[in-house]
């Protein structure tokens, strides 16, 4: 699941949510605003099916494999506080997600690719793991290569970023600083996490 290469619009239609943000997938999903395979009679979705759909939203949105999501779930359970909130905060702290929200990339798969190709540094050290968990005080910058700065400056000019209260972005210096840990209100994905936690606790 970490790198999904199938039809993205089909996933958007099945989940009823634009988990893939690239323009082609959004346009294709808008042409058919019903789930795939709907030529047949619809069946009532069970609670199990609803919870599974919510879990799939998290996996596709953040680019997680089942084992990664299970690992996050285990950490969230052991961490003090609400398990649902802890789980989503762990997902938000992923380096590829922070890069996307800061505006260095237009989609999370694009941000993931940039990390894997060693385009980014954290506190001056090159990081190639998209799952790297950021901490307050971390400074995310590009490697000192003119071609990379030109590419990413254009992306940031297109305003692909979002308003993120816990990340300070300096577009001129091409850097992002993690000021605090995100809270549950800062989570970018709206999903019924409670049903996912209940589903994974079985």
UniProtKB/TrEMBL annotation:
Indicate whether rRNA-binding appears among the record's keywords: yes
| Alphabetized CDD domains for the sequence | S4
In its UniProt record, a GO molecular function of this protein is:
rRNA binding
Domain Small ribosomal subunit protein uS4 N-terminal intervals: 3-92
Q: Name one GO biological process term.
A: ribosomal small subunit biogenesis
SMART domains per UniProt? Ribosomal_S4, S4
Q: Which UniProt keywords apply?
A: Ribonucleoprotein, Ribosomal protein, RNA-binding, rRNA-binding
The cellular component terms of Gene Ontology attached to this UniProt record, alphabetical and capped at eight, are: small ribosomal subunit
Where does the RNA-binding S4 domain start and stop, copy by copy? 93-149
The record's function comment reads:
With S5 and S12 plays an important role in translational accuracy. One of the primary rRNA binding proteins, it binds directly to 16S rRNA where it nucleates assembly of the body of the 30S subunit.
PANTHER family in UniProt: 30S 40S RIBOSOMAL PROTEIN, SMALL RIBOSOMAL SUBUNIT PROTEIN US4M
Subunit architecture: Part of the 30S ribosomal subunit. Contacts protein S5. The interaction surface between S4 and S5 is involved in control of translational fidelity.
What the record says about family reads: Belongs to the universal ribosomal protein uS4 family.
Protein's name according to its UniProt entry? Small ribosomal subunit protein uS4
Its lineage opens with: Bacteria, Pseudomonadati, Planctomycetota, Planctomycetia, Planctomycetales
Q: Which gene encodes it?
A: rpsD
């Amino acid at each position: 699941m970490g790198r999904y290469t199938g039809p993205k619009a089909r996933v958007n239609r099945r989940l009823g949510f634009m988990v893939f943000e690239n323009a082609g997938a959004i346009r294709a999903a808008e042409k058919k605003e019903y789930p795939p395979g709907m030529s047949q009679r619809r069946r009532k979705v069970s609670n199990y099916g609803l919870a599974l759909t919510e879990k799939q939203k998290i996996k596709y949105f953040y680019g997680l494999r089942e084992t990664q999501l299970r690992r996050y779930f285990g950490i969230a359970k052991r961490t003090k506080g609400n398990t649902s909130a802890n789980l989503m905060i762990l997902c938000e702290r992923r380096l590829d997600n922070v890069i996307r929200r800061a505006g260095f990339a237009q989609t999370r798969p694009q941000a993931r690719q940039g990390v894997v190709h060693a385009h980014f540094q954290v506190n001056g050290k090159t990081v190639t793991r998209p799952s790297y968990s950021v901490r307050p005080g971390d400074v995310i910058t590009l490697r000192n290569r003119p071609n990379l700065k030109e590419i990413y400056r254009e992306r940031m000019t297109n305003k692909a970023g979002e308003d993120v209260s816990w990340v300070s972005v300096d577009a001129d210096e091409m850097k992002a600083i993690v000021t605090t840990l995100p809270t549950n209100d800062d989570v970018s994905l709206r999903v019924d996490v409670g049903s996912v936690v209940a589903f994974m606790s079985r």
